[in-house]
Queue: 3 jobs
Job 1
Amino acid sequence: MSAMMKPSGEPSIRHSLEQPQTGPTALRIVLGAQLRRLRQERGISREDAGNAIRGSHAKITRLERGQVGFKERDLSDLLTLYRVLDQAERADYFALAQRANAPGWWHQYNDVLEDWFELHVGLEEAASLIRTYEVQFLPGLLQTEAYAHAVHRLGYPNAPARKIDRLVELRMARQKLLTRPNAPRLWAVVDEAVLRRPFGGPEVMRAQLEKLLDVVKMPNVTLQVAPFSVGAAAAGSPITILRFSDPALPDKVYLEHLTNAVYLDKPDEIDQYTLIMDRLCAEADTPEETSRFVRTLLDQLA
């Protein structure tokens, strides 16, 4: 049996520690899931676990969902309660908690980064595959700076220029993950209306279309356009599915709204949205057809 796996066949804490691209957000979720598994295996209620760390069942829920960091004393008490007494195993948990508590690079944007979006940025950083479908805007990972300015100005019409600038800086910083070593694969499907809608005016859109033609040459980027005739596009709202190389971290579906977001990770939910995404990819124009369409739109703007 692999040393990376527990007798139950589930990935061990040690395995998660050895994943080089797994950032603090993902590690918090992994650690929380491991603690939830331990609690359930021992038949301990959230209330009793909360009492053990001088807290409530709500605090245990937040810890198990990876929504908050871990204090060393709380983690020690929980491991003792769950009968994890081997010093080497406990050391792995503490090492994972230390990494999970470390601030991500995006924390420098806390002045404009919403809590509900911070989780997405952290998960995006850890993903090995990002599949996304957009119906109104181009994916943030593919936007030019000028296009991003136009989009943010639309979403925050009364915001000061400084806030818009900071939001655009954050979006440009996120794009660096596509060119880093061991970069994730981005597979994007966009509704035809996205490419026809001239955000920022003709000059901004021309530069944006030119960028798309450059970006799709990258080996880890696939772009498809869903024509108006595609029936699967009736999904109607943006969808992002994130997959991770760490088997301890389940796929996540991210559904963004104007002022909040929903994160789904139940198997039946993942299956449902994966089916929708698969249909979109199958019915949308191929990457080659998409590139020709982008060139046609560019000629129309000339």
Job 2
Amino acid sequence: MGWRTIILTKEAKLSLRMNHLVITSDETKTIFLEEISSIIIENPSISMTGHVMNALVAAKIHVVLCDKAHLPMTNIQSIYGHHRQSKHITQQIAWVEARKELLWKILIEQKLNNQAKLLQYFQLDGYDEMQLLVGNVALGDTTNREGYGAKIYFHKLYGNHFIRGYDDTINAGLNYGYALLHSLFARLIVSKGYLTEIGIFHKNEFNQYNLASDLMEIFRPIVDGIVYQMDKDVFTKENRRALINLFEYKVEIRGKSYYLTQAAQIFIDGCMEYLNTGNKGRLQLPNLDYKVYKWGV
């Protein structure tokens, strides 16, 4: 599993040489494929062959292509992610509703707890209110504690004037960071032989990544913390770099510290195992220890 994040901002040509990625631009750089975790392609004029794209997918490298505004637009992933894909999809379609409801309850409890800890880390109000919500999440979150918590959380973090979805710098940062997380989870889910379209809570017919939307929820506060420390006047190149660095962060899971991509894999494996077997003991939830992160730019 690689650990390096490669950001391509200039017009360049990508090629392969003896299991290395060769980047030819103003200068030529050669990087061992096994060292690469993610590639963020910000320049739409990057040139690469289908052979290169297939090699990146085979090496399980997370590849994101940005649009002209440098916003994540496309991720490259395999159509057939696993040799037992048919079996896994059959299992996914038959997931028991009660298991999905319990898993969603657990995920929302963890998300609210992670949000509360972020407020506490930045010495903001709201920790106690968020913790009260954690203890009142129903199966399937039928009382929408997540939505109520979001109102408290975002107002405490970004101010009472903040409205999610508005066209401003904070929302631009959140959208950028969440898109990076979304693409990572979508690729990992496909690599394990499951369909991203079939979620446990998100069921939007226009969202082809419903399952990724479900499972990335508890990791969102990593993005929120980076955006909190950004320049709020304009969304800059430096802000994008700070958000891309989230792939370099360590997350504690299963009693050890892992890079975000590795932790996400362990987390997804546990969720799939629980949904397939009902063994709750297989769940592995991440601990976001904000003190170890280098926030901001």
Job 3
Amino acid sequence: MNDGGHALLVEEVDVHFGGIRALDGVGLAVRPGEICGLIGPNGAGKTTLFDVVSGIRRPDRGRVLVDGRDVTRRSPAWRARHGMRRTFQRQQLFGQLTVADHCVVAQEWRGGGGGFAADLLASPTRRTHEARRHE
């Protein structure tokens, strides 16, 4: 494949985990404005491909181009700063929180009472709202 105006171009990507070939010569081309879905059974390599595209995993071979620029060796943070974002599928929000804490977090979308400054300064209003939520 050549770049030809693709927003995302994945060329001949291989990823191995020991003797297992997770990806073998995978290519993907997505044009600007195009919506692309990736489907397949468990173990087909979908997550591994997303890891390579987002920079979480470096391929054993091949490259990733974004808007014609080779980003294969760029970090996930660099890619994020330049517009490439990734979300993760998780069954829980925060591994270190209890179920009760997760419920409090879910209520936080309404605001903590007094805005950002109140959160930083732990204002009495903020503490009152937080105590009510914990109850």
